[in-house]
Amino acid sequence: MSVLFENRQLVVPGELLAEGDFNAGEGAYRENGKIIASLIGLAALKGKTIYVTALAGSYIPYIDDIVIGKVYNISLTSWHVDICSPYAGILHISNVIRRPFNASKSDLREIFDIGDIIVAKIIAFDRLQDPALTVKGRDLGKLRGGTIIEIPPSKIPRLIGRKGSMINMIKEQTQARIAVGQNGRIWILGQKAGDEIQVIRAIRKIEREAHTTGLTDRVRELFVD
Question: What letter would DSSP give residue 163?
């Protein structure tokens, strides 16, 4: 058994992705013991299943992805969250607080209200039911202030860079707080006027030039006085 790609690597139709006992998920097919890409997109391995997410189109959730979502509906025990996907994120109260919750005596709006922006992690998704979210964990929960922008989810790996090199460079140059969702949403909070504008300028350049080489150096030049 062998996997012939790195996680979220750009692949093209007909490209050999793996050999051996793997399953073909969306965007891939199995032929003669091999998994082959059927479209242009980002390849990913989840368990023993290989998927290819199309470059164009909506975000397709994966377990363990960090997403930035917007609360748009509230039920007795859960929130419905827009995560830029055909699927709505479901955040159950048990994945928010550890104490017992009495729906007849408490209102979920006291925790998250409609319109709130949250950072969450996908903990379950099988395409037969909407993805389950959690905000239990470091750097997860409600975001306050700042600016939200969106880019195609396929450009997120380039924004992050190898081992976080690109996004960390932008943080160091601007001293801004930045949260990046795999669903293409980015939250930016600057320390002073102009910080957020600088970050947005850099992100838009990465979005336009993600396919080119030498991009890190060109982005760094944006911060030179």
Answer: G
Q: Tell me which long-range contacts 213-222 makes (C-beta under 8 A, separation of at least 24).
A: 215/158, 215/166, 216/161, 216/165, 216/166, 216/169, 219/166, 219/169, 219/170, 220/169, 220/173, 222/198
Q: Mapping DSSP to helix (H, G, I), strand (E, B) and coil, where does residue 162 land?
A: helix
Q: CA 33, 35, 39 angle in degrees (round to 5)?
A: 150
- 0.90 exceeded by pTM: no
In this predicted structure, the answer to whether residue 119 has a pLDDT above a threshold of 90 is yes
Q: How far is CA 116 from CA 69, 70, 71, 107, 184, in A?
A: 8, 6, 6, 15, 17
Q: Coil, helix or strand for 139? A: coil
Q: Is residue 176 within 8 Å of 128, Cβ to Cβ?
A: no
* DSSP collapsed to 3 states, 167-212: HHHHHHHHCCEEEECCCCEEEEECCCCCHHHHHHHHHHHHHHHCCC
Residue-wise pLDDT for 19-66, tens only, equals 999 999 888 999 899 999 987 778 889 889 998 877 666 788 999 999
